[in-house]
Amino acid sequence: MAALINILATTATITGSALSFSIFLQAHKIWKNKSSADVSLAMFVLFVANSLAWISYGSILGNFPLIIVNSIALVGAATTILLALKFRK
């Protein structure tokens, strides 16, 4: 059972990291096109709130992978929001 938990924890950390880094793809697209016309700011604001909740939960548990993965997501979502506001027409 402990081996299965370790496998699931590792898998969740890897996939969570991939998802967190994928947010930067949207920020890159905004930067490249100098436009954020098709970006939902509400979605990214909710994503920031979600990331903050998970970071808080991870902090209470002392779960560093949970904190790190969601911190990456938080930075990506905040970057996307800032770029979207900068290039909003």
Strand and helix layout:
Elements: H1 2-33, H2 41-61, H3 64-86
Structure in words:
- The protein is mainly alpha-helical.
- It has a single domain, classed as Monooxygenase (Up-down Bundle).
- Helix content is 85%, strand content 0%.
- It is built from 3 helices and no strands.
- The protein has helices at residues 2-33, 41-61, 64-86.
Notable traits:
mainly alpha, 3 helices, elongated
> Might you state the CATH topology name?
Monooxygenase
Poorly predicted sequence stretches spanning 5 or more consecutive residues = none
What is the C-level CATH assignment? Mainly Alpha
Shape: elongated
Q: Total number of β-strand segments?
A: 0
Along the chain, the helix and strand elements come as HHH
The largest pleated sheet is described as: none
Total count of helical runs of at least 4 residues: 3
% residues in beta strands: under 5%
